[in-house]
């Protein structure tokens, strides 16, 4: 009974909740509840922390693994974080220094690996100018000194120059000599002498002393010959000079220039040489411009120069007489007044030539000219010249500046056919223009340096950087006395002085000193490969960082991060 009652009570207690639950569920549709979407912020943050910890544990970068260890004390983490930041700072500083060096000095000039034989370059062009611009005529009162003194007196007195007993030809010669004699004595306010516009080249040509009297004989490559076989006339700021082994004006100047149109017609083969490419490999021994096969006096040019005491006009060129000699590259226009070797009379002068050549590697052609500080021949076009060189560019810039300042150019400057030529009233102006151009270039570069711009890469107004391939002829000079009268007396020759009264001679020999020479070469100091290797070395030294380290970093926080995030979102759903 008790058992039954108990069981009954238990059955009753079990049935009540069931009935209550059934009654409570009446009227409720469980399928109508809306599904809640989980927030993405928490899984995203969790996924980022997991990716960070996994990356720190598996990274190949030194010190990073200590930053992701949870059991690591906070002080150690701060220490390694500080070391990591300092390493990054050191890397950034050194890489910036390497980049600055690569950007500012990408080109280095060093010695070439091999020596160069002299037959790979042309023999230097030799320009010779006599100090005698006009033969002084005996018993003539119309010397340059006499006419200039009268001119100075008349200018101070009446400002009108009317010399007596002077022909039109002599007046033209006097006006021309004002441009080639001591021009530094010309005053600022010198007036224009009345007369027609002169062709200065024609007047200078007419005044020239006879070539065969002043260039007595020549020897080239051990062959004696008349000097006119080797020399051609050249118009320079010193007047008409004579050049050996220079390129023809038609090969240097453009077709619309005065120098091109008034040059002598010559039957010379086409040149197979250029400064950048050298001689054609198939060219023969005799080339244009000429070259030699070895060093020494026998493989050079030898000449005897002569002048005459009674023909010297000391008032024109001063007390130092004789000849001026300039050695230059065949494609350069000679500028004798800038640098020359003086050949005095009664001396034997030996000039041993030591060429200095700078070549260019193919790699630096990709750099901007301002970065490598030189021009390739195709990069800089000149108005008057076919061939670019620093000397030709400076001469053209001077001509343009003189035209702007004075309204004309000096008779010897490169010019087009329609450009006016300066008269005697502009002598002071074009002499001053040459100095003002140099001062202007100096102030321009200095002002750019003052404001903080680097001197390297500054473009001047003339923009006449050196050619990337250049050739300069350095010289060693030795002299000895050459006593003509004593030699003639010893030989018993009495006829020579009767045929050439007042003769005074000098001998000149020009040759290469050595058969081989060391060239310099412009090449890349830091290429892209060198810069990347430098950066890799710095990163490896301070952090153990490499390209694969970068790939690891991108992998953990892009691809792996995305996969882990997608997995977490599925689990939460």
- Cα-based radius of gyration, to the nearest Å: 44 Å
CATH evolutionary superfamily of the largest domain: Acid-sensing ion channels like domains
Q: What's the overall geometry?
A: elongated
Number of strands: 15
Which parts are unreliable, with pLDDT below 50 for 5 consecutive residues or more?
Answer: 1-35, 454-458
Average of the residue pLDDT scores:
83
Kindly estimate the percentage of residues that lie in beta strands according to DSSP. 15-25%
Structural class by SSE content: alpha+beta
CATH-defined architecture of the largest domain: Sandwich
Question: What is the name of the CATH class of the largest domain?
Answer: Mainly Beta
Task: Provide a concise account of the structure shown.
GO terms for molecular function: ligand-gated sodium channel activity. This is Pickpocket protein 28. Helix content is 39%, strand content 18%.
Polypeptide structure, described:
39% of the residues lie in helices and 18% in strands. The protein is of the alpha+beta class. Strands 1, 3, 4, 9, 12, 13, 14 and 15 form an 8-stranded mixed β-sheet that branches. It contains 17 helices and 15 strands. It folds into 3 domains: 45-105 and 528-570, no CATH class; 120-264 and 275-368 and 474-523, Acid-sensing ion channels like domains (Acid-sensing ion channels like fold), CATH 2.60.470.10; 390-466, Helix Hairpins. Strand 3 and strand 4 (223-225) form a beta hairpin. It has helices at residues 2-24, 41-58, 74-104, 144-157, 168-180, 200-207, 211-214, 249-252, 258-261, 314-317, 369-372, 390-406, 427-450, 484-491, 495-499, 528-543, 547-572; strands spanning 107-117, 125-130, 215-220, 223-225, 231-236, 239-244, 273-274, 278-279, 301-308, 323-328, 341-343, 347-360, 470-481, 503-512, 516-524. Helix 3 (74-104) runs antiparallel to helix 16 (528-543) and helix 5 (168-180) packs across helix 6.
């Amino acid at each position: 009974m008790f058992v039954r009652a108990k069981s009954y009570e238990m059955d009753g207690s079990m049935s009540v909740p069931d009935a209550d639950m059934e009654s409570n569920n009446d009227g409720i549709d469980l399928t109508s509840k809306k599904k809640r979407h989980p927030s993405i912020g928490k899984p995203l943050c969790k996924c980022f922390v997991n990716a960070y910890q996994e990356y720190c544990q598996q990274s190949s970068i030194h010190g990073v693994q200590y930053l992701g260890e949870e059991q690591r004390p906070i002080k150690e983490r701060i220490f390694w974080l500080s070391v990591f930041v300092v390493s990054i700072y050191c890397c950034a500083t050194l890489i910036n220094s390497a980049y600055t060096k690569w950007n500012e000095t990408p080109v280095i000039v060093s010695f070439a690996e091999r020596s160069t034989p002299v037959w790979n370059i042309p023999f230097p062009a030799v320009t010779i100018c006599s100090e005698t611009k006009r033969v002084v005529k005996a018993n003539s009162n119309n010397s340059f000194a006499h006419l200039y003194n009268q001119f100075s007196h008349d200018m101070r007195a009446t400002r009108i120059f009317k010399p007596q007993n002077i022909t039109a030809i002599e007046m033209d010669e006097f006006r021309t000599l004002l441009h080639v004699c001591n021009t530094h004595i010309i005053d600022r306010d010198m007036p224009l002498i009345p007369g027609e516009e002169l062709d200065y080249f024609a007047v200078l040509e007419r005044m020239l002393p006879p070539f065969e009297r002043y260039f007595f004989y020549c020897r080239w490559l051990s062959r004696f010959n008349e000097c006119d076989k080797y020399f051609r006339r050249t118009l320079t700021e010193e007047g008409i000079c004579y050049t050996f082994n220079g390129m023809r004006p038609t090969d240097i100047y453009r077709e619309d220039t005065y120098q091109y149109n008034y040059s002598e017609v010559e039957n010379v083969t086409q040149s197979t040489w250029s400064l950048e490419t050298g001689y054609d490999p198939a060219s023969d021994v005799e080339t244009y411009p000429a070259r030699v096969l070895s060093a020494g006096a026998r493989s050079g040019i030898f000449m005897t120069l002569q002048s005459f005491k009674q023909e010297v006009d000391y008032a024109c060129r001063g007390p130092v007489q004789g000849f001026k000699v300039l050695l230059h590259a065949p494609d350069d226009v000679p500028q004798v007044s800038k640098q020359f070797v003086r050949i005095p009379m009664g001396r034997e002068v030996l000039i041993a030539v030591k060429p200095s050549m700078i070549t260019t590697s193919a790699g630096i052609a990709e750099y901007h000219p301002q970065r490598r500080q030189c021009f390739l021949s195709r990069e800089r076009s000149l108005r008057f010249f076919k061939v670019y060189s620093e000397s030709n560019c400076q001469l053209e810039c001077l001509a343009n500046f003189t035209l702007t300042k004075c309204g004309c150019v000096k008779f010897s400057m490169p010019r087009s056919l329609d450009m006016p030529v300066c008269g005697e009233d502009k002598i002071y102006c074009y002499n001053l223009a040459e100095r003002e151009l140099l001062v202007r270039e100096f102030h321009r570069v200095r002002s750019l340096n003052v404001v903080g711009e680097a001197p390297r890469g500054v473009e001047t107004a003339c923009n006449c950087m050196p050619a990337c391939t250049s050739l300069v002829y350095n010289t060693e000079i030795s002299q000895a006395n050459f006593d003509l009268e004593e030699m003639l007396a010893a030989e018993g020759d009495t006829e020579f002085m009767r045929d050439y009264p007042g003769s005074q001679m000098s001998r000149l020999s020009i040759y290469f000193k050595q058969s081989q020479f060391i060239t310099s070469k412009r090449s890349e100091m830091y290429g892209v490969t060198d810069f990347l290797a430098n950066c890799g070395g710095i990163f490896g030294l301070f952090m153990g960082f490499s390209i694969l380290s970068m790939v690891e970093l991108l992998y953990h926080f892009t691809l792996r991060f995305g996969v882990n995030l997608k997995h977490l979102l599925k689990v939460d759903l």
